[in-house]
Design a protein that fits this description.
345 residues, mainly alpha, 13 helices, disordered C terminus
Length: 345
């Protein structure tokens, strides 16, 4: 039976290989980091955007970053752990959960959640490019914000420029505040833990981790409240686009796969015909070897006798007819001979 080409969605059921996943994730993350660095914009525009967000929040009485920053700067036991969390968890927890998904969950679940994360990250990069925004910590001191990363820099590896290590602050874009992907990635982690975590602790972390990160980014004066809202909205848009993106990728793979069939597929199609031919040859060879020759029949009289009995029993009607014909013809011949002898006398 000839093999058919695989369906377009068949590849989604196989587990992705780590040597293909790592380069894909690395490319997207490199684009994210490079985009943050290149899409700096001018400082004046970034400050205007930051002040516009702050004034809007103040009019709506949702500027939660202001009282949180006061607490973080006044209490060292709160501010220092928050700075460590801001500088590390974003880059540790998300890859760890992604690796756990790849190892433990179904391939279809992993593909959907990975695609959701990557698309949302690219959307966030577009936001950084179109709307460079000055975070609260970089506004003038008259607005009442204190940069906790700079205040507690002696306790960690970071300096006074965002969460970058000392001396590397120039390699990051400090005006990439809108949207907050710290909050967006944390929300992604929370959804994954809620859906796929089995223990009660997983459910607690699923709720507590995104909320904690949202409080941290505002208390350290790295983001406005509306930045956090925008980060959650970006993740929502990415989730809506994840399934269409997977279907599009499946169609592309199916088209290129059917247009250029591989040698393995051709070999797989030809294999059944070759196997059938070989089976016929084997069957004919076996039957040839099992056929009994005339000499062998002569050497086995018992077998010959059994064959004769089977032929006689199988065609008894024909034998009787033949005997009758033979007896009739014999009597006629005898009668003719007697008549000839009488005429001679």
């Amino acid at each position: 039976m000839p093999q058919t080409a695989p369906r377009a969605a068949t590849w989604q059921g196989s587990r992705p290989r780590w040597w293909t996943e790592l380069p894909l994730i690395a490319v997207v993350y490199a684009a994210y980091s490079a985009g943050r660095l290149l899409a700096r914009g001018d400082v004046t525009t970034a400050v205007d955007h930051g002040l516009g967000i702050l004034h809007l929040e103040q009019r709506l009485s949702i500027d939660f970053e202001t009282p949180l920053n006061d607490i973080f700067t006044a209490h060292k036991l709160i501010g220092i752990p928050a700075d460590f969390a801001y500088a590390s968890l974003h880059y540790v927890v998300t890859p760890a959960i992604l690796a756990w998904l790849w190892k433990r969950r179904r391939a279809a679940d992993y593909r959907l959640l990975r695609t959701w994360l990557l698309i949302s990250t690219l959307i966030g990069l577009v936001g950084f490019t179109l709307m460079p925004t000055c975070p609260p910590r970089l506004l003038e001191a008259g607005h009442g914000f204190v940069d906790t990363m700079a205040q507690y820099s002696s306790y960690g590896w970071w300096g006074g420029e965002a969460s970058a290590p000392r001396g590397l602050g120039g390699l990051t874009n400090q005006y990439a505040a809108m949207p907050s992907l710290h909050v967006g990635w944390a929300l992604w982690c929370g959804v994954v833990l809620w859906r796929h975590g089995r223990s009660a602790w997983a459910k607690v972390l699923a709720v507590g981790y995104p909320l904690s990160i949202a409080i941290v980014v505002m208390g350290t004066a790295n983001h406005y409240f509306l930045d956090a809202v925008a980060g959650a909205a970006v993740m929502g848009v990415g989730l809506l686009l994840a399934k269409p993106a997977l279907r599009l990728a499946g169609r592309i793979r199916a088209r290129f796969g059917s247009a250029r069939p591989s040698s393995e597929q051709a070999a797989g199609t030809a294999a059944p015909a070759a196997n059938a031919a070989s089976n016929l040859n084997v069957a004919s060879n076996v039957s040839d070897k099992c056929e009994t020759s005339a000499r062998e029949r002569e050497r086995i009289p018992r077998q010959q006798g059994r064959d004769a009995d089977r032929s006689t029993g199988g065609d008894s009607g024909g034998g009787e007819v033949g005997a009758a014909v033979r007896s009739g013809s014999g009597s006629q011949t005898a009668a003719a001979g007697d008549g000839a002898a009488a005429a001679a006398r």
